[in-house]
Amino acid sequence: MEEVNKQDTPAQKSLDKMKHVEFVQSLDSKVSRQSYEYWISEHLRMNGLYWGLTALATMDKLDALPSSEVIAFVMSCWNENTGGFGAFPQHDAHILSTLSALQILILYDRLESLGDERKNKVKNFILGLQLPNGAFQGDSFGEVDTRFVYTAIQSLALLGELSKEVIDRATDFILKCTNFDGAFGRAPGAESHAAQVFTSLATLAIANNLHLIDQSKLGSWLSERQVLPSGGLNGRPEKLPDVCYSWWVLSSLALIDKIHWINSEYLESFILSCQDLESGGFSDRSGNQPDVFHTCFAITGLSLIQGKKHGLKAIDPVYCLPSEISANIKKWPVDYS
């Protein structure tokens, strides 16, 4: 990364945790439920709830939302016919909303709420989405993406239901998505993208297969995502920085022990510049509208580089859950027989 004068970087600010807690709380208020945007975003509700709760948990404010109402909503989205979770009651089950549901239950230490019968149906829903080439579909409509491999593998890990056959096939597919630059695309031959790098690396990390990739080449590609003079990170070459890549890029660098390959001071300043100090929350770039997606990944990204300084809990770069929670997940390889 080229040298930048200290005076060229944006001034650092403090993290206004209470503003961000209030922002997350406001997303499901009586006022927000009367908005058009609230109802057209049903398809993201389970994911949005996970993003908000993860931001709260990282700020050590998980109790800011009523746990009983959260758990009741999650369980209302379970689809008995397919065994997976939808994004909203009566929505079709999808692997993305299924993972978010399981992560929320893990956050509250309520995975046992599933019960053995439902847990088995969730497992079978996930396993039924894996294709012969090791990839996973998102749902019965057939879209394939490395995101779905990661969400499936993490979901099975949370359930304690990983197997060597599933791991080996998933690993084979992920490795076929590697590009000449050392990074990963959404499928074999697809363009390298930082979010796909994270989902690919995290899958390999769960499978204990990070040794199968060229970590130095990938680390170089990831470190080149830092955009100057802002210090923010982008997802692909020649793109604008976006605060969400503070998670996708940083977590990937953490998994290969190369966070020190980017300038954390400049990145910290960029992240803090994206917070809305009036309404709370974070936007993709300074001055834009905040949303819960960017709020989650700004805060978790900040935790990876300056967590103690800002009073944030340590975050697990594999599971995107507080490390104190992910420590209880059974790690592969284990005997599930």
Automatic annotation (TrEMBL):
<dbReference type="Pfam" id="PF00432">
    <property type="entry name" value="Prenyltrans"/>
</dbReference>
<protein>
    <recommendedName>
        <fullName>Geranylgeranyl transferase type-2 subunit beta</fullName>
        <ecNumber>2.5.1.60</ecNumber>
    </recommendedName>
</protein>
<keyword id="KW-0637">Prenyltransferase</keyword>
<keyword id="KW-0677">Repeat</keyword>
<keyword id="KW-0862">Zinc</keyword>
<dbReference type="InterPro" id="IPR026873">
    <property type="entry name" value="Ptb1"/>
</dbReference>
<dbReference type="InterPro" id="IPR008930">
    <property type="entry name" value="Terpenoid_cyclase/PrenylTrfase"/>
</dbReference>
<keyword id="KW-0808">Transferase</keyword>
<comment type="function">
    <text>Catalyzes the transfer of a geranylgeranyl moiety from geranylgeranyl diphosphate to both cysteines of proteins with the C-terminal sequence -XXCC, -XCXC and -CCXX.</text>
</comment>
<keyword id="KW-0479">Metal-binding</keyword>
<dbReference type="GO" id="GO:0046872">
    <property type="term" value="F:metal ion binding"/>
</dbReference>
<dbReference type="GO" id="GO:0004663">
    <property type="term" value="F:Rab geranylgeranyltransferase activity"/>
</dbReference>
<comment type="similarity">
    <text>Belongs to the protein prenyltransferase subunit beta family.</text>
</comment>
<dbReference type="GO" id="GO:0005968">
    <property type="term" value="C:Rab-protein geranylgeranyltransferase complex"/>
</dbReference>
<dbReference type="InterPro" id="IPR001330">
    <property type="entry name" value="Prenyltrans"/>
</dbReference>
<dbReference type="InterPro" id="IPR045089">
    <property type="entry name" value="PGGT1B-like"/>
</dbReference>
<feature type="domain" description="Prenyltransferase alpha-alpha toroid">
    <location>
        <begin position="15"/>
        <end position="321"/>
    </location>
</feature>
